[in-house]
């Protein structure tokens, strides 16, 4: 019996629901009905502790994946950067839609750019990746942990808790807040998180019907670049809350991947850039990871994990 209405699993935040509703709109355009089921994840429940101290992988996807494996939902929509490099065996990424802007964005309380902030200025971010790169660029800044949804983060900025905050440009664009951005950070200053700006549509491998129904959502270019980035992450055995960054760009039949591993204080920044044929995207990610490990990334990551 064919499915008449697909059940989409999503977190309940404003951004997560925008993403799920976007997928719902695409399905509707193909004549496919769907409903959204909101699921609260561990990351949503623990809001008073920096993500890096909560520990573990999949803080924003685990409960959704469990619902998927139990058959309570037919597919899940995630921010790709929240998806661990290894998925439960019954699940896979069935589609990776076209990517939004992958860059990090600065929102200054008084419209200031990062280079113009006064010494000691408080900058809010929830990301160790951003923290390390910000300190490499401006070691005089005071980095303050920032948790909560986009609405609450912007409110804290407006109330004067920070001189600036760093957020993913994609989320701001999706929610119509692009005009708040005072500066987009170049990859040389802040290389994006693995998969940043991309969505992940996850479902059960053995659900042939749903896999077929949602295949049209996949964007080959985005899938290629994200494959390279996630292979890098897998080889480094990293989660979304470690100072690992990676961004790939496709041009013709070539894909180029920039990878980075940093110490938390930003004093050591290891970079590697390599290119390969698009058909070898996954192998490229592994090659970049191996090169970073040879430069000393293994010691940085080992000290980080042992310190937790």
Describe the structure.
The chain has helices at residues 14-29, 42-45, 51-54, 62-69, 128-137, 150-158, 169-174, 208-214, 220-236, 281-307; strands spanning 5-10, 33-38, 75-79, 91-95, 104-108, 122-125, 142-145, 164-168, 183-184, 199-204, 244-251, 254-262, 269-277. With 308 residues, the protein is α/β, with parallel strands linked by helices. The protein has 3 domains: 1-98 and 198-218, Periplasmic binding protein-like II (D-Maltodextrin-Binding Protein, domain 2, 3-Layer(aba) Sandwich), CATH 3.40.190; 104-184, Periplasmic binding protein-like II (D-Maltodextrin-Binding Protein, domain 2, 3-Layer(aba) Sandwich), CATH 3.40.190; 219-308, Double Stranded RNA Binding Domain (2-Layer Sandwich), CATH 3.30.160.40. Strand 6 (122-125), helix 5 (128-137) and strand 7 form a beta-alpha-beta unit. The longest helix is centred in the last third of the chain and has 27 residues, at 281-307. The radius of gyration is 19 Å and the shape is globular. The relative contact order is 0.15. The model has no long low-confidence stretch (mean pLDDT 92).
Net shape: globular
Question: Which fold does the CATH topology of the largest domain refer to?
Answer: D-Maltodextrin-Binding Protein, domain 2
Number of domains: 3
Sheet with the most strands: spatial strand order: 2-1-3-10-4
CATH architecture of the largest domain: 3-Layer(aba) Sandwich
Give the quaternary arrangement of the chains. single chain
Structural class: alpha/beta
Give the termini distance in whole angstroms.
Answer: 49 Å
